[in-house]
Write a structure and sequence with these properties.
The chain has 337 residues and is of the alpha/beta class. The chain folds into 2 domains: 134 residues, ATPase, nucleotide binding domain (Nucleotidyltransferase, domain 5, 2-Layer Sandwich), CATH 3.30.420; 166 residues, Nucleotidyltransferase, domain 5. Helix content is 42%, strand content 18%. The protein contains 10 helices and 10 strands. The strands form 2 sheets. A 5-stranded mixed sheet has the order 3-2-1-4-5, with helices on both faces. A hairpin with a 5-residue loop joins strand 7 and strand 8. The longest helix has 27 residues. It is globular. Bound molecules: 5'-O-[(R)-(carboxyoxy)(hydroxy)phosphoryl]adenosine (KG4) and zinc ion (ZN).
């Protein structure tokens, strides 16, 4: 089966053709990132306008690169939640129009389920597994019992890991997105130069909190400025990155042990982080656990992951009609539309 996947939840306008949930025939991405860099973060209005301009060309290009016409496509999958509402609406409306005009089934896909599915690409990984989903907007530990049945075991109580990295990067005056800049600069720094506390949550031992760590970065910089001292940015970046990765993996290890998972999966934009990838490898080697992380090109937002998850949602009977709406927030385990 060939699924056309469409993604527009943030600043990437993306489309892909994916066969049987695992084979990518094309994967086209247009991004408005360079414009957002001027403002130090995504400007929703600009993102929506760029999606509207790019989506038609991106979808045509995805079909062309896959050597397909719309006739060859079995279903159209689209991200309908969560994300920036104006951005999501562009993809949802485009997909609805396409599905109606070509008389193809329309499959709504939750963005984070799509991130998880980036692990199915070029791989034979199958649920059940425990997944750490870390993006700009979310940090979840998810028990994935089947392709479409998921349960959140832990979540962030404040900032997402990617959001904390981006904000910390901004306070260090590093280029947006801070997560990418921190990853780049950290090898030049001493990750033990600054000590960050490991926040413990009263809500659940598997929950995260990153806003305290982020505030410590900001305070460290302000204090140094007030005293006229200079901070070695790479030291601060490396120490902060180490703290974030330690937190992410400590709770993941706890949850895997408590719930008896031996197959670990990581997904979301932050899964591109080299420290997280290396430390997760060490952790899983120590326990003899199987580890799956997406190829770097599928870590960030893309259409292939939506085409991959769209295939499994299609098999599970998930269908939408012309009344499909977009939603800024939506739980991953009770995805409704
Ligand atoms: O999944 P994603 O592309 O978009 C959302 O769904 O949010 O994730 C974007 C996040 C940003 O916070 C970005 O800084 C972070 O992923 N990110 C990274 C790296 N690459 C992207 N964080 C740390 N290290 C990276 N290499
Ligand atoms: Zn994403």
């Amino acid at each position: 089966m060939k699924i056309l996947g469409i993604e527009s939840s943030c600043d990437e306008t993306a489309a892909a053709v994916v066969e049987d949930g695992r084979h990518v025939l094309s994967n086209v991405i247009a991004t408005s990132l360079e414009e957002h860099k001027l403002y130090g973060g995504v400007v929703p209005e600009i993102a929506s306008r760029r999606h509207a301009e790019s989506i038609s060309g991106v979808v045509s290009e995805a079909l062309a690169q896959a050597d397909c016409t719309l006739e060859d496509i079995d279903a159209i999958a689209v991200t309908y939640a969560p994300g920036l509402i104006g951005s999501l609406l562009v993809g949802v409306n485009f997909a609805k129009g396409l599905a109606l005009s070509a008389n193809k089934p329309l499959v709504p896909v939750h963005h984070l389920r799509g991130h998880i599915a980036s692990n199915y690409i070029d791989s034979d990984v199958k649920p059940p597994f425990l997944c750490l989903v870390v993006s700009g907007g979310h940090s979840h530990i998810v028990a994935v019992s089947s392709y479409t049945e998921l349960e959140v075991i832990g979540r962030t109580r404040d900032d997402a890991a990617g959001e904390a990295l981006d904000k910390a990067g901004r306070s260090m005056k590093l280029p947006y997105p801070g997560g990418v800049s921190i990853d780049k600069i950290s090898p030049q720094g001493n990750e033990n130069a600054f000590v960050f506390p490991h926040p413990k949550m009263s809500t659940s031992i598997y929950d995260y909190s990153f806003s305290g760590l982020k505030t410590k970065v900001i305070n460290t910089i302000h204090n140094a400025e007030q005293k006229g001292e200079t901070i070695h940015t790479a030291d601060l970046a490396a120490s902060f990155q180490k703290a974030v990765v330690d937190c992410l993996l400590t709770n993941l290890e706890l949850a895997a042990r408590d719930f008896g998972y031996k197959k670990i999966v990581i997904a979301g934009g932050v899964s591109a982080n080299s420290k997280l990838r290396a430390e997760a490898q060490k952790l899983c080697q120590k326990h003899g656990w199987e580890l799956h992380i997406p190829q770097l090109k599928y870590c960030g937002d893309n259409g292939a992951m939506i085409g991959a998850q769209g295939y499994f949602e299609y098999l599970a009977g998930v269908r939408a009609d012309a009344s499909l709406n977009a939603y800024a927030t939506m739980p991953i385990d009770k995805a409704e539309f």
